[in-house]
Write a structure and sequence with these properties.
- Helix 1 packs across helix 8, helix 3 packs parallel to helix 4 and helix 4 runs parallel beside helix 5.
- The termini are far apart.
- The protein has a single domain, classed as NAD(P)-binding Rossmann-like Domain (Rossmann fold), CATH 3.40.50.720.
- Helix 4 links the parallel strand 4 and strand 5.
- It is built from eight helices and seven strands; from the N terminus they run E-H-E-H-E-H-E-H-E-H-E-H-H-H-E.
- By secondary structure, the chain is an alpha/beta fold.
- A seven-stranded parallel sheet has the order 3-2-1-4-5-6-7, sandwiched between helices.
- The structure holds NADP nicotinamide-adenine-dinucleotide phosphate.
Length: 255
């Protein structure tokens, strides 16, 4: 294989990788030759996922931790750096949502959404920084959303966090360029995962989504993971600070 499109010898930490988009990213990075560490809160799911991936001869480690909490983020970074003897790639994939009208959010819900979707990414980048700098070809990919670029019925806190993710990406890309660390963001539209299953099971909503998607289908996790993997490769060495949408044409659609 052309080594510009290869991840052999790299060490990747992926948050939220037992299902949905994170699992597809873990599989793609490992397929391209990376050693990986996966994270999720449910210990049993982490173990099952590690066993499944290891059976495919991938080099894989797993840790159960909550990255919305400071102690969870610390333990994840320390574990990954120790198990893999370093971190070259950080994928900030964890995200969640509670869809409500702005006046109906409790403070606890608001804080949970910000801690999970935004603070976790900011602090994971900070925790991983010494390892990424030591790597000399470090790469971060943050999972944003087109909800950070348009007003959608996601609820304001999720959209605010995802918009901030795009700015965090630009700020860190410039601040850490001299350390050889590239930072990019991938922003999906509707992808079929456990997160979106409840809302997409509403027929009228689903038809509305499809009517606004020029490619006339929902996305699948591999539609996103391929781009994430590419952004980590030597072939993407001159790409940093970007937010790239994976949206079936949603953002391009006018009338
Ligand atoms: N699906 C879409 O249509 C869509 C669209 C735009 C953007 N996105 C973004 O893409 C990312 C992945 O979404 P997804 O749909 O694949 O989500 P998902 O199906 O809900 O999967 C989330 C994964 O993250 C883990 N996780 C959740 N909270 C965690 C926490 N606090 N600490 C550690 N692990 C945690 C989950 O496992 P545990 O529950 O065991 O922790 C699971 O492995 C998110 O950032 C989301 O906002 C998704």
């Amino acid at each position: 294989m052309n080594s510009r499109f290869d991840l052999k010898g790299t060490k990747a930490l992926i948050t939220g990788a037992t299902k949905g988009i994170g699992l597809a990213i873990a599989e793609d990075l490992a397929d391209f030759g990376a050693e990986i560490t996966i994270v999720a809160r449910n210990q049993e799911e982490v173990k099952k996922t590690v066993d499944r991936l290891a059976a495919r001869q991938y080099k894989v480690h797993g840790i159960a931790a909550d990255v919305s909490k400071a102690e969870g983020r610390k333990s994840v970074t320390a574990f990954a750096a120790e198990k893999m003897s370093g971190i070259d790639i950080l994928i900030n994939n964890v995200g969640t949502n509670v869809r409500k009208k702005t006046t109906e959010y409790t403070d606890d819900e608001y804080n949970m959404l910000m801690d999970t979707n935004l603070t976790s990414t900011f602090d994971m980048c900070r925790q991983a920084y010494p390892h990424l700098r030591a790597s000399k070809h470090g790469a971060i990919v943050n999972l944003g959303s087109v909800a950070g670029a348009r007003a959608l019925p996601t609820g304001a806190p999720y959209a605010m966090a995802k918009a901030a993710m795009a700015q965090l990406t630009r700020s860190l890309a410039v601040e850490w360029a001299a350390d050889g660390i590239r930072v990019n963001c991938v922003a999906p539209w509707f992808i079929k995962t456990p997160l979106t299953e409840p809302i997409l099971s509403k027929e009228v909503f689903m038809q509305n989504v499809l009517a606004r998607t020029p490619l006339s289908r929902l996305g699948e996790p591999p539609d996103v993971s391929g781009l994430v993997a590419f952004l980590c490769m030597p072939a993407a060495a001159y790409i940093t600070g970007q937010t790239v949408s994976v949206d079936g044409g949603f953002l391009a659609l006018g009338l």
